[in-house]
Amino acid sequence: MTCGGTANASGYDWADPISSGCSNDAYTARSSALPDNDEQIGTVELRYSTACRTTWVRVYADGPDFGGYVNRNQDGATQWCGGPSIAPNGQEYCFSPMLNDAGYTSYAAVHASDSTGYNESGTHTTSSY
Question: What is d(CA 30, CA 47) in angstroms, rounded to the nearest whole number?
Answer without folding.
Answer: 7
